[in-house]
Amino acid sequence: MAVARKPRYVDVTNPSLSVECPRCGLLTARFVDHCRNCGYKIWPSSEVASAAFKAWRDADPSRRAAASRFDLTLPEEPLDVVVDYAARAHELGIHLFPNSNYPFIICVGTLPLALAAIPFPSATLRIAFAVIGGLIFLYGVVGWVLVEDVRMYPAEGSPTQEVHH
Ligand SMILES: [Zn+2]
Predict the structure, then answer these.
(1) Ligand 1 centroid vs 2 CA: distance in angstroms?
(2) Cα dist. 25→9, 31, 37, 48 in Å?
(3) DSSP annotation of 32
(4) Cα(107) to centroid of ligand 1, in Å?
(5) Tens of pLDDT along 49-79?
(6) How far away, in angstroms, is 17 Cα from ligand 1 center?
(7) Which of 1, 45, 86, 98 satisfies CB 3.0 to 4.6 Å to 148 for a cystine?
């Protein structure tokens, strides 16, 4: 009767990973040989506890394959946390600015505009800076606000167009 390495009995239909300790009554890991709270010996040895855990795990691999015998509960199903923020914002009526490179152009335009503010002795130089900066700046603003934004929100940009949901 050499059955020392076999678990004496394990109820594999019970899905619980935790058990109430017979001595202290607190919840502890079901397949760890000692109670985590009071040290009471639940299994004759760690090997037996591990064998019992494997028997329990292999009884329902679909739900128990990822389980650890040191945990008190089965791992949760991973949640699908992918959120489409653009669609969500549209639903809530929040205006998102389009993802765009135009803000960089706007920033580039501000450099000549800032230079135009310096009181150089030559007035034509300042006007040239102002015109160049103004054109780049306006190009960026028009591209971002009037072109890309209208493309993203057709209903808001042009009232004649209707959006059908
Ligand atoms: Zn205990």
Answers:
(1) 30
(2) 21, 16, 9, 22
(3) S
(4) 67
(5) 999 999 999 999 888 988 999 999 988 877 7
(6) 15
(7) 98
Cross-strand bridge partners of residue 41: 34
Q: How remote is the CA of residue 14 from the centroid of ligand 1, in Å?
A: 20
> Per-residue confidence at 156, pLDDT binned at 50, 70, 90?
low
Only one residue has tokens 């128990």, namely 64
Radius of gyration of the chain (CA): 35
Rounded Cα gap, residues 100 and 144, in angstroms: 7
Q: How far is the CA of 26 from the centre of ligand 1 (A)?
A: 6
Query: What predicted TM-score, i.e. pTM, was given to this entire model?
Result: 0.45
Smallest CA-to-CA distance from 70 within 57, 60, 89 is with 57
